[in-house]
Known about the structure:
CATH topology of the largest domain: Four Helix Bundle (Hemerythrin (Met), subunit A)
Oligomer: single chain
Domain HTH gntR-type: 8-75
Distance between the termini: 58 Å
Strand order of the largest sheet: 1-3-2
GO molecular function, one term: DNA-binding transcription factor activity
Protein name: HTH gntR-type domain-containing protein
Keywords: DNA-binding, Transcription, Transcription regulation
Order of helices and strands: HEHHEEHHHHHH
InterPro entries: GntR_C, TF_FadR/GntR_C, Tscrpt_reg_HTH_GntR, WH-like_DNA-bd_sf, WH_DNA-bd_sf
Shape: globular
Strand content: under 5%
Helix content: over 70%
CATH architecture of the largest domain: Up-down Bundle
Structural class: mainly alpha
Largest sheet: 3 strands, antiparallel
CATH superfamily of the largest domain: GntR ligand-binding domain-like
Amino acid sequence: MTPLLKHRTLSAAILDQLRKAILDGTYPAGAQLRQDALAATFKVSRIPIREALFQLDAEGLVRIVPQKGAIVSELSLDEINDVFGLRRLLEPRLLARSIPALAEADFTRLDEMNRQMVAATAAQDLSRWGQLNADFHMALYGRAGQPRSLTIVQSLLQSSDRYTRVQLSDTAGTGIVGMQRAVDEHAELVTLSRAGEIAKACAFLEEHIGTVHDDLLRALERGAREDAP
């Protein structure tokens, strides 16, 4: 392995671990991510740490603040609306282009992902569920032939994963219901896509994303009421 490739592989591994730690709440909103402390933790120089933090800043998971460094981003209502609004615009367009090119092997893979999501739902494993959810959506659009749009959507899915975990962790008991409903809706998306029902599949997808968005806003509203004095 060349030094450059090794460096890139190391940076990517650190990025993945930091992203996971933010998504699962190990580093909560407002936490400061100090480069020197992270470098000591990962036993690396500050260079790959800095690169990972800049990428997390681009993904919206951290903010680079002068004199303070990297701060884990707060949950922002404006960003939530922006992320889910963009998803409702871009994902149906990708699905419409992907459906005609999806092969039976693709549908078999999608079915298997959904079965794994059933198991993650039963175990209430939010981390596993969130990754499978993102993978499912990306696989559904994988034949669209629009790599730039796919890259944007992948970033949006990473951002929405963090917000979705808030919804699924809702103390009102709606989290498990949301997980089960998403699995059922994914199965319907596969059925419509397999049947070549492009218009119906795209409309259903937009509704699916909108439902998650609405549930999240209600969960945040409940949380705000519970936190109020």
